Amino acid sequence: MSAGNSAANYVGRFAPSPTGPLHIGSLVAAMASYLDAKVHHGQWLVRIEDVDGDRNVAGADAHILASLQRCGMAWDGDVTWQSRRTGLYDAALRQLGDLVYPCGCSRREIADSQLSLTGRQAQALIYPGTCRHGLAPGKTARALRLKVPQSPPCVIAFEDRWAGHISQDLTDEVGDFVIKRADGFWAYQLAVVVDDGAQGITDIVRGADLLDSTPRQLYLQQVLGLPQPTYLHVPVVVNSVGEKLSKQTGAQAFDTGAAPADLLQQALLPAARFLGMALTAGSLDDFWRQAVPAWENVLKDTCASWR
């Protein structure tokens, strides 16, 4: 059994954004989280992360849920939608109190302030604290930011079940970060932390593209007094030029209404191979019977935390 949570209290989740149908990259993340819950005899929840209203595609949430069902991935309990949970985010904002302040800086202004930076700092938009002690002259509030401790630096470290030890200096590498955006939508960092806490999520299995944001979420968990889940970030699928497979890079839907046998051959088996499982199933039932012990073997071979 994993060094994470025991089978008795394991609660995992898959939390897609309804910006279009699932592609093979999102199927990999769904499969890994589903199988991890099954290996640990835990619960697997589904949450639709539709808090970003400008990016949502009408009907995408229904298509996502139908695709999961057609793949044989049944979730526990009711599906939740972030757009119906904004009261929880308002309550979290009130709890954060003086740690939150309005910011009037644009991304362009933040980028311009870092032209003299080199190395790792130059590769990310690190907020310089312009509005930390009040809006700069001539600025109007655009977003809400959360203060990160300055002295001593706020270093967040954790053990990822796949990637191992991860450490990030939020003060030096991130700065005060946005929890409510200039367009009025709640930022992913706050919404995901509040939702995971409210739903009792103990184990988060998702793509490695979100690994860099995890320290911000851990910091939010600390200041909100929420439990820290265990994390496992699986590799992400990339396209022919090395870009993460996504809707923005032209990823195509894997579920176009094909027969179950085609869905198995064209999507499920390739996703399993990407995760290190060599399966030869002839049906969906065969696939999942083989996939659960196969995922356990992947964990034993790959994850240092497996015991």
Automatic annotation (TrEMBL):
ATP binds at residue 247. The keyword Repressor does not apply. Keywords: Aminoacyl-tRNA synthetase, ATP-binding, Ligase, Metal-binding, Nucleotide-binding, Protein biosynthesis, Zinc. It is an enzyme of class 6 (ligase). Zn(2+) binds at residues 103, 105, 127, 131. Belongs to the class-I aminoacyl-tRNA synthetase family. GluQ subfamily. HAMAP family: Glu_Q_tRNA_synth (MF_01428). InterPro entries: Glu-Q_tRNA(Asp)_Synthase, Glu/Gln-tRNA-synth, Glu/Gln-tRNA-synth_Ib_cat-dom, GluQ/Sye, Rossmann-like_a/b/a_fold. This is Glutamyl-Q tRNA(Asp) synthetase. GO terms for molecular function: ligase activity. A motif ('HIGH' region) lies at residues 16-26. It holds the Pfam family tRNA-synt_1c. Binds 1 zinc ion per subunit. The keyword Ligase applies. Transmembrane segments: none annotated. A motif ('KMSKS' region) lies at residues 244-248. It comes from the Bacteria. Its EC number is 6.1.1.-. Catalyzes the tRNA-independent activation of glutamate in presence of ATP and the subsequent transfer of glutamate onto a tRNA(Asp). Glutamate is transferred on the 2-amino-5-(4,5-dihydroxy-2-cyclopenten-1-yl) moiety of the queuosine in the wobble position of the QUC anticodon. The gene is gluQRS. Residues 13-280 form the Glutamyl/glutaminyl-tRNA synthetase class Ib catalytic domain. L-glutamate binds at residues 13-17, 49, 188, 206. It comes from Duganella zoogloeoides.
